[in-house]
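User: tokens in, sequence out, please.
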């Protein structure tokens, strides 16, 4: 059995991943409540075990409602799910001691979404594992 990845999901206002270093530059990180519509970002931070370095890990992020169903947004072409596919790869650098985990990251910047007040989860699937991070959309101030 392969050593599992250590994964964190972080919500923030905006983010940019640096694949070469595994770092992510984030603005407004760590929130769990927003008003709609609002742009935001979902960051995947991974520690890739030494024995799994130099592998490509496909990932899927899907926005789900409080019932666990994929969120669908009305578009000109009809309702569409809110999801993204991507990948991370942690190349084994020469100066990292044998056995040390290697940093890898992915950032998804999300355009404004017209979400109704309620609870939502970003659901991540990667390397046979799943993670979620929950947030709440608050009713507009009146």
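Assistant: Sequence out:
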């Amino acid at each position: 059995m392969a050593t599992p990845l250590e994964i964190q999901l972080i919500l923030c206002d905006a983010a940019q991943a640096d694949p070469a270093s595994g770092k992510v530059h984030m603005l407004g990180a760590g929130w769990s409540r927003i008003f709609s519509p609002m742009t935001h970002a979902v960051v995947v931070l991974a520690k890739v075990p030494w024995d799994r370095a130099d592998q490509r890990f496909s990932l899927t992020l899907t926005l789900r409602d409080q019932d666990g169903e994929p969120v669908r947004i009305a578009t000109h072409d009809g309702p569409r799910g809110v999801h993204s596919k991507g990948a991370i790869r942690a190349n084994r650098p020469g100066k990292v001691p044998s056995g040390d985990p290697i940093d890898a990251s992915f950032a998804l910047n999300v355009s404004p979404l017209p979400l109704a007040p309620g609870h939502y989860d970003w659901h991540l699937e990667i390397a046979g594992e799943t993670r979620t991070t929950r947030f709440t959309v608050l009713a507009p101030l009146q």
